[in-house]
Amino acid sequence: MVTNAFLALALFLYLAVFAVFLYVCLIADPETSRMARLFNEEIPTGIWNWLGNRLSRNTVNFLVYFSDRFLLLIYCTVVYGAWSLIFWLVYPWITRSHTVSSIHKHIGYLFFIACISSWRLATKSSPGIITAKTLHRYDHFPHDNILFEAKCTCRTTGIPKVARSMFDRHKYNANVPRFDHFCGWVHNTIGEENYRWFLLFLLIHFAMCAYGSLVVWWLFVGEVKEKELLQVTYVDRFTGELIPSSKIIVAQYLFNRYLWEAGIFMLMSVMAVALVGFLIYHVYLTSYGMTTNESYKWSYIRTWYKRELKEYEQAVKTRSAAPEQKSATKVTKVKQDQSRQDFARDPGLPPVNIYDRGFMENWREVMFPISLREDRSYNGSARPKYE
């Protein structure tokens, strides 16, 4: 019982820590989440300030270089480490198994090649760089004057700001067209020309983790059936007590006998859930003609619109009810409410995302970037399609 409770606690802590890491580092927005701001901005800033006052500039620069690639190192350690264990432990198990076919080993090799290839493609591909010479190539989105104002100049580069672009301070120190986000797992900025490769990276890694989880699961199922583990009686090594079989006892037995294999199964299962969540999120963004950067901004705009509309409606109700108020106290309150109403402006119709051109066009825009097409028609762009 103690061992079972310990395993359950270890599993719970593992999942809890992973969930917190997932939320704080990858999901939550530091602008709106106090926890995300604490772990992503305040604590790192405090640490760098403390180190900067105690270490030499060269040492700090080395640490900055290392920290910028921290997630990249974690990715390489986890992926290459997990695949090493799979080749070393899981593949021989497949060979011995009567439940899982050996063809899955060949499929595994294909997944390994696809995994590394998609990661390298997402790492090395350029998102597109806007310069004075390439400005015409990426100037194919109109300014909506909501998220992106017209006739603005980048303060850093001094060139006109293209709609949907953003200055990348993480890697390129340049304006990136259709800026989406910076991905630490591939240590690359995701923009107009490599967003499709990022989606491929997510898809292949999700498929790899989901498929690997199922194969290892069926290996465990085959082990239970072949050795009839649900029908045998177990002996406690410490007390000598005979323990009747149960699913919990069998799970504990398999976990102890196949510790590394169980760890691989848990890792792939959790990552499959996380990756499918990210993949669904980006499929949603693409389908509605948004980037990650724009989705955050749209969340602020919708919140602002709802607040302004609510204040305006309350002000209108207060003003329409004013003639019914007669007491001196109420008259004063009515005047104050009318004064507030004077400042409450009708926000008008809900703001619209003009970059949402429909499901098919939105996906065509991602899979076949406009900047790489040969049929650019307006100053190297496709702007007439929007107007």
Write the layout of secondary structure elements.
Elements: H1 2-27, H2 34-52, H3 57-68, H4 70-96, H5 103-124, H6 135-138, E1 166-168, E2 174-176, E3 181-183, E4 188-190, H7 195-226, E5 233-235, E6 242-244, H8 247-257, H9 259-287, H10 292-320, H11 328-343, H12 359-367
Antiparallel strand pairs: 1-2, 3-4, 5-6
Helix pairs in contact: 5-7, 7-9, 8-9, 10-11
Task: Describe this structure as you would to a colleague.
With 387 residues, the chain is mainly α. It has helices at residues 2-27, 34-52, 57-68, 70-96, 103-124, 135-138, 195-226, 247-257, 259-287, 292-320, 328-343, 359-367; strands spanning 166-168, 174-176, 181-183, 188-190, 233-235, 242-244. Strand 5 and strand 6 form a beta hairpin. It is elongated, with a radius of gyration of 28 Å.
The average pLDDT is 82
The number of distinct β-strands equals 6
Shape: elongated
Which structural category do the helix and sheet elements fall into? mainly alpha
Main sheet properties: 2 strands, antiparallel
What portion of residues belong to β-strands?
under 5%
Strand arrangement within the widest β-sheet reads: 1-2
Measured between the Cα atoms of the first and last residue, the distance is: 69 Å
**Rg, nearest Å:** 28 Å
| Helix-strand sequence | HHHHHHEEEEHEEHHHHH
Uncertain runs with pLDDT below 50, 5 residues or more? 321-341, 377-387
Percentage of residues assigned to helices: 55-70%
Number of helices: 12
